[in-house]
């Protein structure tokens, strides 16, 4: 049974651009307020060594905490995603990340019309493959339509681009990918989780965010400034929070700290 997830002070205000109603006046664009401080039931236990820290000290502490992790095989990811990403409105389906499409759990594979395993932190960014470790870490693996997965490829994340078939509102251009609004924060928190979890002190590369969109095979992922904005604009919702619980309770035994404490993104970066 999933642990009850108690959260207080989740609410934050998001400033919206308002059109001017008087001729000749313009209203400046406003941005989302930084993520508000949160309190969770895990602060006195799981996160005890991180509470009160900031910057590098916070990042180092969180790395130690979330590195206590059970790894699973790449083949086991198929069945895990059927649980972690189950459509809350249809238990026979999974919800596809970028498309927002609800698709039968049984349609997993590599053919057109199937869904497959999307590495949100592109596996070529660090060349970690699909061996147990970053290549099988459920905190950044999500179900996605085969063709949409191919369109995203290994592009960095940024604003802008054009729509495409089954995009669900996501956009892409020659060197970047913009997920639909409802999961922009999810994507940001997955990328930044990977940057904290994998610091190069085991057999895996040191993954870090940067502000580029041409990272290719180096162990970096961008664009950090945009990811921070998305984290503020799209706070964790019930789907993302449930997913964090399932991974923690049933699979890996570790959590994505930026789902529990989105304000830690600004504290570290």
Brief digest:
By secondary structure, this protein is α+β, with helices and mostly antiparallel strands. The protein is built from 8 helices and 12 strands. The protein has one domain (7-268).
Sequence-ordered SSE layout with sheet pairings:
Elements: E1 7-8, E2 39-40, H1 55-66, H2 74-84, E3 86-87, E4 90-95, E5 102-104, E6 115-119, E7 141-145, H3 146-152, E8 156-157, E9 171-172, E10 176-178, H4 184-197, E11 208-209, E12 220-221, H5 224-233, H6 238-251, H7 257-260, H8 264-268
Index terms:
269 residues, 3-stranded mixed β-sheet, 29% helix, 12 strands, alpha+beta, 3-stranded antiparallel β-sheet, single chain
Q: How do the helices and strands follow one another from N- to C-terminus? A: EEHHEEEEEHEEEHEEHHHH
- The largest sheet has its strands arranged as 3-4-5
How confident overall, as mean pLDDT? Answer: 90
What's the helix count? 8
Tell me the number of strands.
12
Rough outline: globular
Number of domains: 1
Sheet with the most strands, sense and barrel status = 3 strands, antiparallel
Helix content: 25-40%
- Gyration radius, to the nearest Å? 18 Å
Percentage beta strand: 5-15%
> How many angstroms separate the termini?
35 Å
Q: Assign the structural class, choosing from mainly alpha, mainly beta, alpha/beta, alpha+beta, or little secondary structure.
A: alpha+beta
Low-confidence stretches: 1-30
Signal peptide: 1-31
Protein name: Endonuclease
Region (Disordered): 153-177
Keywords: Endonuclease, Hydrolase, Nuclease, Signal
């Amino acid at each position: 049974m999933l642990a009850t997830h108690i959260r207080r002070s989740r609410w934050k205000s998001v400033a919206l651009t308002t059109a001017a109603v008087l001729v000749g006046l313009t209203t400046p664009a406003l941005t989302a307020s930084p993520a508000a401080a949160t309190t969770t039931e895990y602060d006195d236990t799981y996160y005890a060594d991180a509470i009160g820290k900031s910057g590098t000290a916070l990042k180092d502490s969180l790395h130690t905490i979330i590195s206590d992790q059970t790894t699973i095989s790449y083949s086991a990811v198929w069945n895990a995603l059927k649980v972690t990403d189950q459509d809350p409105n249809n238990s026979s389906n999974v919800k596809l990340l970028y498309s927002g499409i609800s698709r039968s759990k049984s349609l997993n594979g590599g053919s057109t019309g199937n869904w497959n395993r999307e590495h949100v932190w592109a596996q070529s960014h660090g060349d970690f493959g699909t061996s147990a470790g970053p290549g099988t870490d459920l905190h950044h693996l999500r179900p996605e339509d085969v063709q949409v997965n191919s369109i995203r490829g290994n592009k960095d994340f940024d604003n802008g681009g054009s729509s495409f078939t089954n995009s669900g509102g996501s956009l892409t251009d020659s060197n970047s990918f913009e997920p639909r609004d409802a999961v922009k924060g999810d994507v940001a928190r997955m990328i930044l989780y990977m940057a904290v979890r994998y610091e190069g002190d085991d057999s895996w590369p040191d993954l870090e965010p940067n502000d580029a969109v041409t990272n290719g095979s180096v162990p970096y992922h961008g664009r950090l400034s945009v990811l921070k904005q998305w984290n503020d604009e799209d706070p964790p919702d019930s789907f993302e929070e449930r997913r964090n619980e399932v991974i923690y309770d049933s699979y890996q035994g570790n959590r994505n700290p930026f789902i529990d404490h989105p304000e830690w993104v600004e504290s570290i970066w």
